[in-house]
Amino acid sequence: MTERRSHLRAQGAPPARPEGKRPLMPMIDGHRRPGGPYTVGAALLGRLVPAVLERSGNLVAAHDIEIRAVAPELRGLVPARRGTLDADLTDDERILVPAPRRTLRLANGIAEFVRDAVPPGRTLVVCNGAQADPTDVELLDVLMRRIPPAVLAITVYLGGPEPPPDSRDAAELWAIVDRGVREGFLHAVAELGARGLALSEPGGEAWWRFAQRTATALGGLGRREEARALWEEVRRTSQDAAVHAASAYGLAMLDARHPEPARRDLGRARGWMNEAIAISTLLPDPVRRAFKLGFDRNGLALIELRQGRLRQALALVESAVELARELGDRHPLHRMVLLANRAQLLAVLGRAKESLEDWGASIAIDPLFPDSYVDRGNLLFELGRHREALADYESALRAGPPLPEAHYNRAELRIVQGDVAGALTDLDRVIDLDPGYVDAYVNRAGLLACLERDEEARADTTAGLALSPGNPYLLTVLGQLETGAGRLPEARRALDSAIELAPGLAAAWGNRGVLRYEAGDPEGAVADLTRAIALAPQPDLYVNRAVALRALGRTAEAAADDARAAPQPEVP
Question: What is the Cα–Cα distance from 110 to 70, expressed in whole angstroms?
Fold first, then answer.
């Protein structure tokens, strides 16, 4: 008989002798208080990496970014093979804060490393799971989802021994906060930054550094009112001009970047940005003034963009690019961001050639920043330059930890190229990396339905609708599946809902046209198919309308639709 293995989450503290045969290592205390972000991750990598280096240095090198981010104490053993530009910049030049989703990328990279590195059949036990840092909570979720228990059976006890009270002073906390900002560990920055503020002299340099990082982290986590309160506290505490400019910028971005457009207050944001610009204009140091003024004008450009004033936004970014010429070799990340922003605006304005030139210049500053490759690849895709777009997506995939967006975009490109198998492989990868990626379920369900793999397509629509109830694209696929299964009332409900939610969705009209024909309503079928053709003319829509027209005796119109659906000869 074989031993039955499974992952396990258990309430309470572990027993005196935790169960688990062939333990990989002693039980890990996951409490975040002593070690901060990736307490579990660092302990696990500390056990595996030295041994793996002896037998498979390439495996370690393939995950250098993830290992160095999660376990900084291993940096002496694991050189940076794919170091990005900001690794060597001074504190005031590091202007980018990684998005919260970066930790999911790190967790997936670590999961793949552990899966390939761990001796099969081992067990791992973690205690104090309820007190783990969110980075470790996410990592454990990914490990338990992606590593089979037969390879590594993981048990997480939510309770455990209470560690000693935290007695770290402001300098020790700053080291963790600074690391958290650089790596995107925003929860730890918000928590420990607040403690650092309490331990620092209000208005002093250390206090300001904690305040700026903490407010930025709170905004990135969606805790906007807390961030706003902290920026306001900074304004009440400090009389430093640069601090007030930075606070005004921070307050403006809380209004301008709200994910719900209806809740953005662009008028208030513009007022704060004008204040930031007015202060930055008066800064005495010319280099600092050029940098800060360009930074603020770039922020105002976002507000112009959100208000639909594209040319005004472009003029502001171009003025910031000109100011950046005064910085010499300093602030390369700032120049990279400005060039990328100008590239995006030029593309929207239809100036594709200039946009591509700016993308090239931006990528040249930091060839290992994956977002730039994805964005340039998207533009190349829109221009029909598929080979170059594919190269950019693959450059993005090589540049860092697993990136679901690049796989998703490559899948869309492969669909256009007729590579359905390759597209499905990429979409499988997206969902494996991020089971909450709704658009991947949409596209995979549609492809599976076209391949008549209806049960798999139905599973994807079910999973997608659980994440996004009322998603019109998924309802359209569901309607198609229900029609094929002969459940016409269910199909009609799904397609009616899809059309109500997204009246411009051609596929929903087309599928409802097929349904109405199947239900004995050829006139309704013609009406729906005509609407679909008006939205997005496709050969299959003409074919289906021709069938409905013939059923109505309108043979001449049907013949015309057949002609429209036929492949057109190429012009020599």
Answer: 9
DSSP assignment of 139-198:
HHHHHHHHS-TTTEEEEEES--PPPPP----HHHHHHHHHHHHHHT-HHHHHHHHHHHHH
CA 70 centroid distance within chain: 19
CB-based contacts of 348, cutoff 8 Å, min separation 6: 310
Strand order in the sheet with 152-157: 8-10, 152-157, 122-127, 28-29
The contacts of residue 211 (CB under 8 Å, 6+ apart) are: 193, 197, 230, 233, 234
Q: What is the pLDDT of residue 569?
A: 58
Q: Cα separation of 42 and 329, whole Å? A: 36
DSSP symbols for 53-96: HHH-HHHHHTTHHHHHHH-GGGTTTS--SS--GGGGS-GGG---
Within 8 A by CB and 6+ apart from 129, the residues are: 9, 30, 137, 140, 156, 157, 158, 160
Retrieve residue 160's tokens: 């455990």
Rounded Cα gap, residues 385 and 550, in angstroms: 40
Give 121's contacts (C-beta < 8 A, 6+ positions apart).
22, 150, 151
Distance between CA atoms of residues 513 and 521, nearest Å = 9
Contact between 276 and 252 (Cβ < 8 Å): yes
DSSP labels for 308-354? Answer: T-HHHHHHHHHHHHHHHGGGTTS-HHHHHHHHHHHHHHHHHTT-HHH
Axis-axis angle for helices 555-565, 539-551 (nearest 10): 170
Tokens of 404: 């679901």
User: Which of 155, 100, 127, 107 has its CA nearest to residue 32?
Assistant: 127
| 378 vs 406: CA distance, rounded Å | 10
The greatest distance separating any two alpha carbons of the chain, rounded to the nearest whole angstrom, comes to 86
What CA–CA distance (Å, rounded) separates 490 from 209?
Answer: 58
Structure confidence by residue, pLDDT tens digits, 11-45 = 999 998 766 679 999 999 999 998 899 999 999 99
Distance CA 551, CA 544 (A): 11
Give the model's pLDDT for residue 142.
98
Give the mean model confidence (pLDDT) for residues 280-292.
95
Q: Round to whole Å and give the CA distance between 482 and 494.
A: 9
Confidence of residue 487 (pLDDT cuts 50, 70, 90): very high
The DSSP secondary-structure symbol of 17 reads: S
Structure tokens at 560: 């015309």
Nearest to 246 by CA among 224, 230, 267: 230
270, two tokens: 């513009």
Instruction: Compute the distance between CA of residue 351 and CA of residue 358 in angstroms, rounded to an integer.
Output: 11
Q: What's the Cα-to-Cα distance from 396 to each of 232, 306, 332, 385, rounded to whole Å?
A: 39, 27, 20, 17
Contact 192, 36 (CB under 8 A): yes
Kindly tell me if the per-residue pLDDT of 174 is higher than 80: yes
Closest among 23, 55, 201 to 126, alpha carbons compared: 23
SS3 label, residue 369 = coil
